[in-house]
Request: fold
Amino acid sequence: MPPHVIISGVTSCQNRGVEALVRCIIEGLGTFGSWRATVLTQTPEQDAALLALPEAECVADPFVVSRSLRTAPPEPEHRLAARRERLIASADLVVTTGGDLHTADYGVSTKYLAAPVAAHNHNVPVAMLAHSIGPFSDPAEAEAWCATAQHCAVLTIRETISRRYVVNDLALSDKLVTLAADPAFLLAAAPPEHADGLLTEIGVPPGCPYVCLAPSKGIAALRGLSERQHMSALMSLISCLVSRWRLPILLLPHVHDTRPHNDDRRLVADLAQNVAHPLVRAVPGALNAAQYKAITARSVLTVAERMHAAIAALSSGVPTVTIGYSQKFLGILSDAYGDTIPLDQVHLGVESFITDDKTAARIGDGIDLEPLRSALANRGALIRTRARSNFARVADTLGAHA
Reply:
């Protein structure tokens, strides 16, 4: 029977970035042999339908239970405990993903350590794959993460800034921590003919250049900022992009959350309605990560408040600017572009984006695409090699534990 891999740290593939992570992990493991995968998620039925991977089963996460995402009736604790025990007992490996769960941004780090801790207690190897880590504001969270990380059979970090923090500030052994890249850099875009059809439906003829904008409905509330000001800043940005590029501006809702406060489809629809310009188009439909990547990959420029929308563009060699709220943006952009591109040319903190009325014009007017495109072309092979190294490390580790 093929080895059984449990994938933990998944919230929901409603976030197409989470979908990209899970899909690329399962496919990446498959390049080194046959596997059975069980994905622990808050929305198992939706995720199973979206992923449509015969080798992967999606089940309700018994280690972390989200009251806001789960639609099924609550399970009693004894039943959750029994499911936890059965899952870990059946596992040959636990892969913990999540990208940036182990930071101070969301306040969820410690509870997402439950699955790897249980695995360690049952002598099941753990691969903590391609995370951004910290910086932690709570010493107890940092201590809990370090205690778990030290027992991992594989520990990869997806960008240089986080690796430096883990080694220099958290004092983990340099030999334990491998620099990799986000698995989503390996995501295959939907086929070209599929992309042609999607663009035609939006009203963009094949071969017509365009700009993509992937806004985040949740970003303002996450940082305690005004949603009204965020909306105003995005509208100013769109106006600047239209004025500067005179190209279609495609609005991509990368998160299809059932919770209104985090549903990008609502924000995209509001922006398209309020801007009311013929060049501004909301991208409709329940698209998956590969379809969004196919659209983003053909853009001349992508501006993203969602990290994995940015990764879809960066991995396609498309000049990309982010508006962000955490260290992960700086780390991933720094590694993708290298030393030749100053980070302040390609990244803005969301606070300055919302409060400084000059930032929209800076994005719209101040971008020289050719150096960005050249830097991404020079670094692309390296980043893809780092992304693939996640799975080579897992294969080596399972071989050692066989």
Notes: DSSP finds 17 helices and 13 strands in the chain. The mean pLDDT is 94.
